[in-house]
Write a structure and sequence with these properties.
Layout (H helix, E strand, L loop, with lengths): L1 H54 L3 H13 L4 H7 L5 H14 L3 H17 L9 H12 L4 H11 L5 H11 L4 H14 L3 H14 L2 H30 L1
Helix pairs in contact: 1-2, 2-4, 3-4, 6-8, 7-8, 7-9, 8-10, 9-10, 9-11
């Protein structure tokens, strides 16, 4: 009888261990499934907000940028992969958000500067910062280090910025070399319809103009001519209907 009891106890102990292993395996599988689903959803969200980042401007752009920044390191592999086949502008936008995720100090400081100078100027008779002084400060304190961020922001946020900030950034870009500013200024001139802003942007582009700028302008003008030709054909055919 004692022998049978001993065998039964050993069997029960072994069965209990097996049951524990089964429950542990099921638990791990469940957690892996949940984590896998979270990872898939996370990747989808990163891709979704990245597309908004490229396609939008104004507040939607800022929201998408903040969402990607909040993803932290998880967004970096996807964003780096996009650099391989991005257009010059898309590449610049992607590089900027990568820098923001990685905590670029100069980017942070330039954004803080805008907030501070606006508050200080609000207490003066003029009420707003002089654009020339803003451009001089940015150039003196940052050189070309913040030109990627401010260039992208000019294109994406310039239409919701106050005039002093838009003009200040255009003037700042005009103080740099062409590799740091030409692409943004060309895109700004191609997209913006404000006559005063365009006049200042032309002067800034001329100031940084060199052989590389000439090549960029020729390419841009050819692309614009092709688009205009297509629109003209559509216009002519509609008139004949």
């Amino acid at each position: 009888m004692n022998y049978r009891n001993h065998l039964w106890k050993r069997f029960a102990k072994t069965a209990l261990q097996i049951l524990k292993l089964i429950l542990l395996a099921v638990g791990l599988f469940s957690w892996q499934t949940v984590l896998g689903e979270d990872t898939i959803q996370g990747k989808k969200m990163i891709k979704y907000f990245y597309q908004i980042l490229l396609d939008s401007s104004g507040e939607p752009y800022l929201d998408a940028e903040q969402q990607l920044i909040s993803q932290g390191d998880a967004a970096i592999p996807f964003l780096r992969a996009q650099l391989q086949h991005a257009s010059p502008l898309s590449k610049l936008i992607t590089e900027v958000v990568l820098e923001r995720i990685q905590g670029n100090d100069s980017f942070k400081e330039s954004v803080t500067y805008f907030d501070q100078v606006e508050r200080r100027a609000a207490q003066t008779p003029m009420g707003v910062p002089p654009p020339e002084a803003v451009a001089d400060y940015l150039h003196l304190h940052f050189g070309d280090k913040v030109s990627p961020l401010l260039g992208v922001y000019l294109l994406k946020l310039g239409h919701i910025w106050p005039a002093w900030k838009t003009l200040g950034v255009i003037l700042y870009l005009g103080k740099l070399n062409s590799s740091s500013s030409a692409e943004v200024l060309i895109q700004f001139l191609a997209l913006n319809t404000n006559a005063h802003y365009r006049k200042i942007a032309v002067e800034a582009l001329v100031a940084v103009g060199d052989a590389a700028v000439l090549n960029k302008l020729e390419v841009e003008l050819k692309e614009m001519a092709a688009k205009q030709d297509g629109l003209q054909q559509a216009l002519n055919r509609i008139k004949k209907k």
